[in-house]
Design goal:
The protein is α/β, with parallel strands linked by helices. Helix content is 36%, strand content 21%. The chain has a single domain (8-153, 207-238), classed as Vaccinia Virus protein VP39 (Rossmann fold, 3-Layer(aba) Sandwich), CATH 3.40.50. A 7-stranded mixed sheet has the order 3-2-1-4-5-9-8, sandwiched between helices.
Length: 242
Protein backbone atom coordinates (compact mmCIF):
# COMPACT_ATOMS: atom_id res chain seq x y z
CA UNK A 1 0.00 0.00 0.00
CA UNK A 2 1.53 3.33 -1.03
CA UNK A 3 1.65 6.02 1.64
CA UNK A 4 0.82 9.59 0.60
CA UNK A 5 3.29 12.24 1.76
CA UNK A 6 1.94 15.36 3.52
CA UNK A 7 3.10 18.92 2.78
CA UNK A 8 6.43 19.90 4.35
CA UNK A 9 4.87 22.22 6.95
CA UNK A 10 2.61 19.46 8.28
CA UNK A 11 5.57 17.10 8.46
CA UNK A 12 7.57 19.69 10.40
CA UNK A 13 4.87 19.89 13.08
CA UNK A 14 5.24 16.15 13.62
CA UNK A 15 8.98 15.53 13.33
CA UNK A 16 10.52 18.98 13.83
CA UNK A 17 11.92 18.80 10.28
CA UNK A 18 10.22 19.18 6.88
CA UNK A 19 12.10 16.18 5.45
CA UNK A 20 9.70 13.66 3.90
CA UNK A 21 12.09 10.71 4.23
CA UNK A 22 12.17 10.94 8.02
CA UNK A 23 8.38 11.09 8.11
CA UNK A 24 7.95 8.06 5.85
CA UNK A 25 10.54 5.99 7.76
CA UNK A 26 9.28 7.08 11.17
CA UNK A 27 5.80 5.60 10.98
CA UNK A 28 6.88 1.98 10.39
CA UNK A 29 9.65 2.36 12.98
CA UNK A 30 7.16 3.49 15.64
CA UNK A 31 4.75 0.70 14.67
CA UNK A 32 7.56 -1.82 15.11
CA UNK A 33 8.19 -0.45 18.61
CA UNK A 34 4.49 -0.71 19.44
CA UNK A 35 4.42 -4.27 18.05
CA UNK A 36 7.28 -5.29 20.35
CA UNK A 37 5.39 -3.80 23.28
CA UNK A 38 2.28 -5.77 22.29
CA UNK A 39 4.32 -8.96 22.24
CA UNK A 40 5.07 -8.42 25.93
CA UNK A 41 1.37 -9.05 26.65
CA UNK A 42 0.91 -11.78 24.00
CA UNK A 43 -0.84 -9.63 21.38
CA UNK A 44 -0.39 -8.56 17.75
CA UNK A 45 -2.15 -5.94 15.62
CA UNK A 46 -4.27 -8.73 14.16
CA UNK A 47 -6.00 -9.25 17.52
CA UNK A 48 -7.87 -5.93 17.39
CA UNK A 49 -11.01 -4.85 15.54
CA UNK A 50 -10.93 -1.12 16.30
CA UNK A 51 -7.70 0.86 16.63
CA UNK A 52 -7.39 4.51 17.60
CA UNK A 53 -4.33 6.70 16.92
CA UNK A 54 -4.55 9.43 19.56
CA UNK A 55 -2.51 12.48 18.57
CA UNK A 56 -2.17 11.38 14.96
CA UNK A 57 -0.84 14.61 13.42
CA UNK A 58 -0.91 14.17 9.65
CA UNK A 59 -0.80 10.39 9.90
CA UNK A 60 2.82 9.32 10.40
CA UNK A 61 1.58 6.20 12.22
CA UNK A 62 -1.99 6.09 10.94
CA UNK A 63 -1.07 5.72 7.27
CA UNK A 64 1.18 2.62 7.52
CA UNK A 65 -1.06 1.16 10.25
CA UNK A 66 -3.69 0.39 7.61
CA UNK A 67 -1.38 -2.24 6.12
CA UNK A 68 -0.37 -3.67 9.51
CA UNK A 69 -4.00 -4.10 10.62
CA UNK A 70 -6.17 -4.52 7.49
CA UNK A 71 -8.89 -6.20 9.57
CA UNK A 72 -9.37 -3.21 11.86
CA UNK A 73 -11.51 -0.11 11.78
CA UNK A 74 -9.02 2.72 12.25
CA UNK A 75 -9.74 6.11 13.81
CA UNK A 76 -7.39 9.01 14.43
CA UNK A 77 -7.58 12.47 15.97
CA UNK A 78 -5.37 15.44 16.79
CA UNK A 79 -5.56 19.08 17.89
CA UNK A 80 -4.05 20.14 14.53
CA UNK A 81 -7.17 20.61 12.39
CA UNK A 82 -5.20 21.24 9.20
CA UNK A 83 -3.23 18.03 9.64
CA UNK A 84 -6.34 16.00 10.41
CA UNK A 85 -8.08 17.50 7.39
CA UNK A 86 -5.21 16.44 5.15
CA UNK A 87 -5.30 12.93 6.62
CA UNK A 88 -9.05 12.61 6.15
CA UNK A 89 -8.74 13.68 2.51
CA UNK A 90 -5.84 11.36 1.73
CA UNK A 91 -6.94 8.34 3.77
CA UNK A 92 -10.74 8.23 3.43
CA UNK A 93 -10.82 4.76 5.00
CA UNK A 94 -9.67 6.31 8.30
CA UNK A 95 -12.16 7.98 10.66
CA UNK A 96 -10.02 11.10 11.17
CA UNK A 97 -11.43 13.93 13.31
CA UNK A 98 -10.02 16.95 15.15
CA UNK A 99 -10.17 17.15 18.93
CA UNK A 100 -9.67 19.98 21.41
CA UNK A 101 -6.78 20.48 23.78
CA UNK A 102 -8.87 18.90 26.53
CA UNK A 103 -11.69 16.31 26.47
CA UNK A 104 -14.12 15.29 25.22
CA UNK A 105 -13.10 13.24 22.21
CA UNK A 106 -15.53 13.00 19.28
CA UNK A 107 -16.14 9.26 19.78
CA UNK A 108 -18.71 7.18 21.62
CA UNK A 109 -18.14 5.24 24.84
CA UNK A 110 -16.35 1.86 24.50
CA UNK A 111 -15.36 2.54 20.87
CA UNK A 112 -11.85 1.05 20.70
CA UNK A 113 -9.99 -2.08 21.73
CA UNK A 114 -6.48 -0.73 20.98
CA UNK A 115 -5.17 2.81 21.48
CA UNK A 116 -1.80 4.03 20.18
CA UNK A 117 -0.33 7.35 21.30
CA UNK A 118 3.19 8.21 20.21
CA UNK A 119 4.76 11.38 21.65
CA UNK A 120 1.58 12.78 23.20
CA UNK A 121 2.18 12.16 26.91
CA UNK A 122 5.79 13.24 26.32
CA UNK A 123 4.49 16.82 26.07
CA UNK A 124 1.49 17.36 28.37
CA UNK A 125 1.35 18.85 31.89
CA UNK A 126 0.04 16.69 34.68
CA UNK A 127 -3.55 17.99 34.79
CA UNK A 128 -3.92 17.52 31.03
CA UNK A 129 -2.58 13.98 31.29
CA UNK A 130 -5.05 13.10 34.02
CA UNK A 131 -7.93 14.48 31.96
CA UNK A 132 -6.92 12.55 28.87
CA UNK A 133 -6.39 9.30 30.73
CA UNK A 134 -9.93 9.61 32.11
CA UNK A 135 -11.25 10.29 28.61
CA UNK A 136 -9.32 7.39 27.07
CA UNK A 137 -10.92 5.13 29.65
CA UNK A 138 -14.32 6.34 28.43
CA UNK A 139 -13.69 5.63 24.73
CA UNK A 140 -12.02 2.23 25.24
CA UNK A 141 -13.93 -1.01 25.64
CA UNK A 142 -13.44 -3.21 28.71
CA UNK A 143 -10.28 -5.25 28.20
CA UNK A 144 -8.85 -2.80 25.66
CA UNK A 145 -5.07 -2.38 25.38
CA UNK A 146 -3.39 1.04 25.33
CA UNK A 147 0.19 1.76 24.21
CA UNK A 148 1.37 5.23 25.26
CA UNK A 149 4.93 6.41 24.70
CA UNK A 150 6.69 8.47 27.36
CA UNK A 151 10.08 10.03 28.04
CA UNK A 152 11.49 7.82 30.79
CA UNK A 153 14.49 8.13 33.04
CA UNK A 154 16.90 6.88 30.37
CA UNK A 155 15.72 9.60 27.99
CA UNK A 156 16.07 12.19 30.77
CA UNK A 157 19.68 11.21 31.48
CA UNK A 158 20.51 11.27 27.76
CA UNK A 159 18.79 14.62 27.26
CA UNK A 160 20.53 16.23 30.20
CA UNK A 161 23.98 14.98 29.16
CA UNK A 162 23.73 15.59 25.43
CA UNK A 163 21.51 18.18 23.69
CA UNK A 164 20.61 20.25 26.74
CA UNK A 165 24.16 20.44 28.01
CA UNK A 166 25.60 21.20 24.58
CA UNK A 167 23.14 24.06 24.04
CA UNK A 168 23.63 25.34 27.59
CA UNK A 169 19.96 25.02 28.33
CA UNK A 170 19.08 24.75 32.01
CA UNK A 171 15.79 22.94 32.75
CA UNK A 172 16.32 23.41 36.48
CA UNK A 173 12.74 22.87 37.56
CA UNK A 174 12.43 19.65 35.58
CA UNK A 175 15.73 18.33 36.99
CA UNK A 176 14.74 19.12 40.56
CA UNK A 177 11.27 17.62 40.22
CA UNK A 178 12.50 14.35 38.75
CA UNK A 179 15.83 13.82 40.47
CA UNK A 180 15.64 15.57 43.84
CA UNK A 181 12.03 15.75 44.90
CA UNK A 182 11.41 12.27 43.47
CA UNK A 183 7.85 12.93 42.45
CA UNK A 184 8.62 11.11 39.25
CA UNK A 185 7.09 13.69 36.93
CA UNK A 186 8.72 16.69 35.24
CA UNK A 187 7.20 19.16 32.78
CA UNK A 188 9.68 21.62 31.28
CA UNK A 189 8.42 24.74 29.52
CA UNK A 190 11.77 26.11 28.34
CA UNK A 191 12.14 23.80 25.35
CA UNK A 192 11.43 26.31 22.57
CA UNK A 193 8.22 24.70 21.27
CA UNK A 194 6.23 27.92 21.79
CA UNK A 195 6.30 28.93 18.12
CA UNK A 196 4.72 25.68 16.90
CA UNK A 197 2.34 24.45 19.59
CA UNK A 198 -0.16 25.62 22.24
CA UNK A 199 1.14 27.11 25.48
CA UNK A 200 0.58 23.93 27.49
CA UNK A 201 2.49 21.71 25.04
CA UNK A 202 6.11 21.29 26.11
CA UNK A 203 8.42 18.47 27.22
CA UNK A 204 7.57 15.92 29.91
CA UNK A 205 9.36 13.02 31.63
CA UNK A 206 8.04 10.21 33.84
CA UNK A 207 9.53 7.60 36.12
CA UNK A 208 8.05 4.12 35.96
CA UNK A 209 7.07 4.35 39.61
CA UNK A 210 5.05 7.49 38.97
CA UNK A 211 3.23 5.83 36.06
CA UNK A 212 2.42 2.65 37.98
CA UNK A 213 1.06 4.60 40.93
CA UNK A 214 -0.82 7.44 39.24
CA UNK A 215 -2.02 5.94 35.95
CA UNK A 216 -3.42 2.89 37.75
CA UNK A 217 -6.31 5.15 38.80
CA UNK A 218 -7.72 4.55 35.31
CA UNK A 219 -6.01 1.47 33.87
CA UNK A 220 -4.09 -1.65 34.77
CA UNK A 221 -0.43 -0.94 34.00
CA UNK A 222 0.58 -4.29 32.54
CA UNK A 223 4.16 -3.46 31.53
CA UNK A 224 6.54 -0.65 30.60
CA UNK A 225 8.86 -1.38 27.68
CA UNK A 226 12.03 0.67 28.20
CA UNK A 227 13.65 2.58 25.37
CA UNK A 228 17.39 2.99 24.86
CA UNK A 229 19.02 6.40 25.15
CA UNK A 230 16.73 8.99 23.57
CA UNK A 231 14.08 6.45 22.55
CA UNK A 232 10.67 6.54 24.22
CA UNK A 233 9.50 4.04 26.79
CA UNK A 234 6.14 2.45 25.95
CA UNK A 235 3.53 2.00 28.67
CA UNK A 236 1.30 -1.03 28.09
CA UNK A 237 -2.07 -0.75 29.84
CA UNK A 238 -5.41 -2.51 29.88
CA UNK A 239 -8.81 -1.09 30.66
CA UNK A 240 -10.25 -3.20 33.48
CA UNK A 241 -13.15 -5.45 32.59
CA UNK A 242 -13.83 -8.72 30.80
Amino acid sequence: MSVPVPPAELIRRVTGSPEADAFVRGGPWHLDAFARALERVGKTYGDFASIYDFGCGCGRITLPLRERAPQARIAASDIDEEAVGWLAENAPDVDARPNGGLPPLPYEDDSFDLVLAWSVFTHLPEDYQDAWLQELRRVTAPGAVLLLSVHGETNWRWTWREPLASRRWSPTRARLALLRRHRGFAHWRGDGWDALFPDYYHTTWHTHGYIRERWSRWFEVADIAPGEGPEHDIVVMRRPGS
